[in-house]
Amino acid sequence: MAENFEPVIVGFLCNWCAYAGADLAGVSRLQYPPNMRAIRVMCSGMVHPNLVVEALEKGADGVIIMG
Amino acid sequence: MVECGRHLNIELLTLSEVEKIEGSEGNFTVTIRQKPRYVDMDKCIACGLCAEKCPKKVPDEYNEGLSVRKAAYIKYGQTVPLKYAIDPDHCIFIQKGKCRACEKFCPTGAIDFNKEHKDEIIQVNVGSVIVAPGFKAFDPSVFDHYAYTQFKDVVTGLEYERLLSASGPYMGHLKRPSDGKEPKKIAWLQCVGSRNINRADNGYCSSVCCMYAIKQALVTAEHTTGDVEQAIFYMDIRTHGKEFEAYYEQAKEKGIRFIQSRIHTVYPNPEGGIIVEYYDAEKGQRVLEPYDMLVLSVGLETDKSAIELANTLGIKLNKYNFVETSSFNPVATNVPGIYASGCFQAPKDIPQSVTEASSAAAAASIALSKARGTLTKEKTFPPEKDVAAEEPRIGVFVCSCGINIAGTVDVKELTEYAKTLPNVVFAENNLFTCSQDTQVLIAEKIKEHNLNRVVVAACTPRTHEPMFRETLKNAGLNEYLFEMANIRNQNSWVHSKEPEKATAKAKDQVRMAVAKAAMLQPLEHLSVQVNQSALVIGGGISGMTTALGLADQGYETILLEKSDKLGGNAWNLRRTWRGEEIKPFLEQLIARVENHPNIKVFKNASIKTSKGAVGDFVSEVDVNGEIKTIKYGIAVVCTGAKEYKPNEYLYGEDERVFTHLEFEEKLQNGISGKQGAVFIQCVGSREPERPYCSRLCCTHTMQSAIELKKTNPEMPVYVLYRDIRTYGEREDLYKEARELGVIFIRYTRENKPKVFKDGNDLVVQVQDHILKQDVEIRPDYLVLATAIVPHDNKELVELYKCSVNNEGFLQEAHAKLRPVDLTVDGMFLAGLCHYPKPIDEAVAQAQAAVSRASTILSKSVMPLDSIKSYVTENCDGCALCVDTCPYGAITLVNYDKDGQTLQKIEINKALCKGCGVCEATCPKKGVFVHGFTNEQLRAQVAAALEIV
Known about the structure:
The complex is a heterodimer. Chain A contains 2 helices and 3 strands, in the order βαβαβ. Chain A has helices at 18-27, 49-57; strands at residues 9-14, 36-41, 62-66. In chain A, strands 2-1-3 form a 3-stranded parallel beta sheet, with helices on both faces. In chain A, helix 1 (18-27) links the parallel strand 1 (9-14) and strand 2. Chain A starts with 8 loop residues before the first strand and ends with a strand. Chain B has 7 domains: 2-129, no CATH class; 136-301, FAD/NAD(P)-binding domain, CATH 3.50.50; 304-371, no CATH class; 394-520, Rossmann fold (3-Layer(aba) Sandwich), CATH 3.40.50; 529-632 and 816-863, FAD/NAD(P)-binding domain; 643-789, FAD/NAD(P)-binding domain; 869-929, 2-Layer Sandwich (Alpha-Beta Plaits). Helix content of chain B is 26%, strand content 26%. At the A-B interface, helix 1, strand 2 and helix 2 of A face helix 13, helix 14, helix 23 and helix 24 of B.
């Protein structure tokens, strides 16, 4: 693996907890690597398994579902 | 502010003062003097040319005089209403008869010097009056030893706040005022103009300065580069608010020094900055220490103009010039129909001010409930343009948020990038996309470019989406044709050290938002019928106050009490901190509740089930073993809290050891004893397993200690404490206790007092904080100021899907903006279940809950969110989703097609919360959630990975 490997991670964030948590991380100025691209969902239970597979197929290095 | 400015039923009168008030509750005539603005509000488009061309520079009061404004000005960028004004005291034309530059350059001819300008006298007829003139920051010039007027690098807390602000004099990059260098070592001095009767006459604690100093110390690191040292000089750290103590602990962990000492004198430092002199109690010596800056944490006091206003209105003020109120009616002044809220009532922080504002609104509207709705105006929106069949034309608005975003993300580059994205026909950058003028601008751009989808790249949709949606509605677009890219909270704030990567991420975020926006469809507006009745859970003071507030406005209210008696914890208390007798008030409250025609009281009752949602809840309750079904539109949770029973300090092992409440009962019968009493504070509070301050124990201890001293002047009384937190005017009790000879000994969490038995003697051993030696006390009574702990709210939380914080207190929707709303629509909270608080604050919070609940109950129909599931033609009735729906919103129904009976699902829109579990379960794209369809989410995934 290349030393400067920068993974692209697709995140599905529940509007009520993880997304709010990500907002709070902002308010608290917690610094984290900018590799995740967040998609807001109304519940982590909303994420169809096909979406995860599709994200990986399209080149995502990881998928994280937070809820 | 923006919401207030655009509300149809709020008329703003700016530059106005109350001249006179006549009449009485329900029918006041208020005479108002309005000063001229010299700008026609209808013509002014707030372009700012007048200010740009105005030659007269004036110290900018908003920035505490640290920068300049012009004589033609707005107070700050988000001013409401956003209209310029001419300051007649500084305008060259008004003062000297020459200039008129602003008039020449104003593109709309809004400047108006020609008319003869006189103050305008306006009369308004109102039923209630709420007074909220706020506070003035204490002026520390009187303390020559802090050298505030001599050294530029000594600033007040408010000035420091401006130095940190993006809209402040240095655009949020911290500089030392004397030479513009970045400060590396900053000190804060607490209690400047608070807890001081020497030269300030302010004996009270201002309640907010400890928190603002800690906040400033913590955020300083974000506004400077490299390492920075922060030290806070204090007497007692008072972080008594909800989750404040954890913040204090966090500050200590991050290396902020807390020095318990007062700075004696401030000297100039030849190398720049200042030198402070203080006594270091740990070392037992005088210390001289250089700092780049000293921030004086100035207290809050009532402004002279507010005192004049009080005189005009006939409102009584107390000795500290705060409005005199009672604990049982905390927002009512001595004049019926006139209410006070905010720091004019007593110094307080934002959550409490917001709560109290709602409380004043409730008090004012209960008095006027008969006239409710007679003068209200309804909002009308232009008819919605049908854009469903049009090709997407997307407009992108990129917010700089001052420097919050623009300081990290290259917003210009981002805006240019947005223009290149498919379907985007317009993109621009705004300083504050949320400001009122930008809303007007967005509406204009929608018309000008025929936009049918809007993307805003700014902060979080969780706070700002509703506002932008309304902007779309005003422009004749369906509000759901809107998408946000969260480039502040989830980008610039969290990647502030990596601006290039942050900009790249922002581009991805905008691209994803645009991809989704292109697929958005207009959604139908839904509403529910509101059952205009209420359920109040818990029959203590908060619950009863809430029930009465609702019932007095004519709403049928059910009050549920788990025990066989109303009143709760208040039965165990005798007096409020102001000295008012609690029992008569409590008895009166209970009598009113039990005899109120609109209140049904269920005792020995508990709630078993809950179905439905805001406006239409149905529950089964167990009343004395009998199950009843009740229906209600909103619910207020007032389940209270209880006293912690400790397992330390020989509690339960020696009959001389009491908790707070136990000792209260003992005191009632009168006590005596030569050996005296010892109080230990923070028993169970501010501990790792309960890392919060119980807020009321210090005040309660003062009350008991004072009573002991007054009835037995010879009796020695000791208070062992960590920080005394008699916030606000309660500080007077602390002073009185000291004057009566109560001895205060400070201990630390690491070196707690030890309690043991020596023969028959009860021995308390503690290290004296001045002598640094162990002291032994052999008291007759040991009183433990134990924590307030929440009841187990687990069942309630599961029933209503609301939430609790780490400590088990119910969690409000937003600490500052929605302090009495629960996270579930139509549910509110008040009293100890939220956080420990004294009676006056519990009553205020209960009234606030009444106010918030009334916003729903006052109308028979309430609009609903449109983000709900819908069934597509692909549904074949396999019913996989029926069982997975957590809200029971899906049912299977039969239908006829070509003579065949087929099955498909049906969604109950009131029950559906749009969680989309059905969408993820369905194997055949038969059910989607509006605004989050599989296709829309796929588009976002694809857009996110386009660059890979």
